[in-house]
Design brief:
Layout (H helix, E strand, L loop, with lengths): L14 H18 L1 H26 L4 H33 L4 H16 L4 H31 L17 H31 L1 H13 L3 H40 L4 H11 L6 H5 L1 H10 L4 H25 L8 H15 L1 H20 L4 H7 L7 H11 L2 H11 L5 H21 L5 H17 L19 H8 L18 E5 L3 H16 L4 E3 L7 H4 L9 E6 L5 H15 L3 E6 L14 E5 L2 H12 L4 H18 L4
Parallel strand pairs: 1-2, 1-3, 3-4, 4-5
Helix pairs in contact: 2-3, 2-6, 2-8, 2-14, 3-6, 3-9, 7-8, 8-9, 8-12, 8-14, 11-12, 13-14, 14-15, 16-17, 16-18, 16-19, 17-19, 18-21, 19-21, 21-24
Length: about 650
């Protein structure tokens, strides 16, 4: 039966332009609506941070309204207290800065003298040139000054000074309050929204489910749970780690003697929300102060060591243990999102960049039309291992394909790699062949790549698996495993070990030839003398020239889904030429069984390489697969009886 390719309807014209126009409209709305959207985004952020505390208070039988009000009051009180501490420390530092200018100036002069070698030859030459230049320019300057005096009138103008009247109390009050109107308004809106979101959390969740589509509640609920848990965990972990980092910075700077150490600890904790560069930026001002305050360079070096050591410990030890994969963002996505949201909403957008991008990734993970967000911004691999090896086959790059194989083989045997990755890659290629997407040159490139990868893995030795410890030796399964004996593989017959004992013949094309190469290598690793033939082995010009003098079995390889007539035709030809040799039909497509029933000379084997290799190994040991299964079943039954009929 011939497979019919599905009909693909063309996309309506202008779809890409419409999507781009919608995206531009959304970005424009985000930019011009930032006065409203920024407080809402901040409120949502704070609600995710405070929600676990509200839930904990409710679990202690505290009413919801009281829990929300107490949590919001404590949370914002801590924030305002830290803000007041920062303002007081900044004012104190501003008063002390003039006393540090001379020390810093002397150090800069010392560095400049050290760099230029003190009063060296170049400095003396530069001084002489400056004096000579001033001497040459003085006469002209003097004449111009005399001419200017001659042109001045005899009567000098009377200076006039205009003074504004003293502002009244109301004007002074307005001047003080006006710069504070916008921050206070934003803070008030954020507090109100946080209280509203925490009080109406369940109602907002239900309305969002209704808006997103109540017909698919499973997917919507999964998206909400994923976003809520991921964001809450991310924010809390970030706050704990960054607060600890800032606290240690403040304590360390206090012991070192840097002025306003609590201020720099708070700045370090806040700026550490900025990915990658926040810690470095927070260290700039403390380093300048350490250089200005200390008489030598010891304070500066200790400050550098403090920031460097804490940053290494936090980024390389603490964050991998605490965060894990909680954010779900790739490093490139973090940098791009930080740049985009900073351009859109300024410094607040920089702080909100990571949580907003996490929301986009979660939405893309659960909404099919927005899946590109998860692909572009998520930290999941863009291609699965079979897709990657297939893409490398198409590109004709055996080097990267071999590197992928070597990485996979560090924890798995070779047969597992061939079954789990390479065979699935060949199946992807076969699906494109059925759709008419692969031409002859591409198939040649795929075959050449597989051939080089198989040749590179020829000398690979699998690791010996470590002994697995039984957790509960008293369990029935543990006792059964201890009772059932592990049989050694049956010895192979001598004639099956000779070269050419098994001919792996491609069934239909180049992909089947690639599968035959893999199968021949796996059979040789079992001690069977296997040889792989080319794709034209069953053609009239090549079939009668095959050397079958030592052949004990033929193995016909099909990666695709051949028709029954094609398989029967190949089997009939081999039966006439085999003179009693066994024929194994290896259906490696993975979607259907072999179209043959087991007979004395023909043995079907459907599935993967391991199953085909096991089937051929049973034949080489002088027993069929059915006999082996019968023996295995009898052994298990006997073990069960000895175990007390578990």
């Amino acid at each position: 039966m011939t497979d019919i390719a599905p009909i693909r309807l063309p996309k309506p014209p202008g779809t890409a332009l419409i999507n781009m126009a919608v995206a531009a409209l959304i970005v424009t709305g985000l930019y011009f609506g930032r006065e409203i959207l920024v407080p809402v985004a901040l409120a949502v952020l704070f609600s995710f941070v405070l929600a676990p505390f509200v839930i904990r208070l409710q679990s202690w039988r505290v009413p919801r309204t009281v829990s929300v009000l107490v949590t919001v009051f404590i949370g914002f009180s801590v924030m305002f207290s830290l803000g007041g501490l920062m303002v007081s420390q900044a004012n104190r530092l501003a008063q002390e800065l003039p006393g540090y200018q001379q020390t810093l100036r002397d150090k800069i002069q010392g560095l400049r003298g050290f760099a230029t070698g003190g009063s060296g030859t170049l400095e003396r030459a530069s001084r002489v040139l400056r004096e000579l230049d001033s001497e040459l320019q003085n006469p002209a300057a003097g004449r111009s000054a005399i001419d200017g005096l001659r042109r001045q009138p005899l009567d000098k103008p009377i200076p006039v000074e205009i003074r504004q009247p003293d502002p009244g109390t109301l004007t002074t009050l307005v001047a003080i309050i006006q710069p504070l109107i916008q921050p206070l308004t934003t803070t008030g809106i954020v507090v109100i929204f946080v209280i509203f979101i925490l009080l109406q959390r369940q109602d907002l969740r239900n309305r969002f489910i209704r808006l997103a589509g109540s017909h698919d509640m499973q997917r919507t609920t999964a998206a909400l749970d994923d976003a809520g848990q991921r964001l809450s965990r991310l924010f809390l972990n970030q706050m704990i780690v960054n607060a600890s980092f800032g606290l240690l910075i403040g304590i360390g700077l206090t012991f070192i003697g840097v002025p306003s150490a609590p201020l720099w600890g708070l700045v370090a904790a806040i700026l550490r929300f900025v990915p990658y560069v926040g810690s470095a930026i927070s260290a700039v001002f403390p380093l300048i102060l350490a250089a200005a305050v200390g008489s030598g360079w010891g304070m500066l070096l200790m400050t550098v060591a403090l920031f460097a050591s804490l940053q290494v410990i936090a980024s390389q030890v603490v964050e991998p243990l605490v965060y894990g994969r909680s954010s779900g963002l790739s490093p490139v996505a973090i940098v791009l999102s930080a740049s985009f949201w900073t351009w859109l909403w300024g410094p607040i957008g920089l702080v909100l960049a990571t949580p907003l991008t996490v929301c986009l990734v979660v939405v893309g993970r659960h909404v099919d039309r927005l899946q590109f967000f998860d692909v572009l911004l998520g930290n999941q691999p863009a291609l699965t291992p079979p897709q990657l090896v297939y893409q490398r086959m198409l590109a004709g790059d055996p080097i990267e394909a071999s590197q992928q194989a070597q990485t996979y083989l560090e924890d798995a045997p070779l047969e597992t790699y061939y079954d789990s990755i390479l065979l699935k890659g060949l199946r992807l290629a076969e699906a494109d062949v059925r759709l008419g997407r692969l031409h002859a040159d591409r198939l040649e490139r795929i075959l050449a790549t597989v051939s080089e990868v198989v040749d590179d893995l020829e000398t690979h030795e699998d690791r010996v698996p470590e002994e697995i410890e039984v957790v509960d030796a008293r369990s029935e399964l543990a006792r059964l495993d201890g009772i059932v004996p592990v049989e050694d593989p049956a010895p192979l017959l001598a004639q099956w070990q000779a070269p050419g004992a098994v001919l792996c013949i491609p069934g239909a094309g180049k992909l089947d030839e690639a599968a035959a190469l893999v199968l021949a290598q796996l059979l040789k690793r079992r001690g069977i003398g296997a040889t792989a033939e080319t794709a034209d082995a069953l053609s009239i010009s090549r079939f009668f020239s095959l050397d079958v003098s030592q052949t004990q079995a033929f193995c016909i390889c099909y990666v695709g889904q051949p028709s029954d007539a094609m398989v029967h035709y190949a089997v009939r030809r081999l039966v006439k030429k085999s003179k009693g040799s066994r024929i194994v039909v290896a259906m490696l497509g993975g979607t259907r069984d072999a179209p043959l029933s087991s007979t004395r000379d023909v043995t079907p084997a459907a599935g993967n390489f391991s199953h085909v290799v096991d089937t051929v190994s049973e034949l080489a040991a002088g027993r069929s697969s059915s006999a082996a299964l019968t023996a295995l079943a009898a052994g298990v039954d006997a073990a069960l009886e000895r175990a007390g009929k578990v």
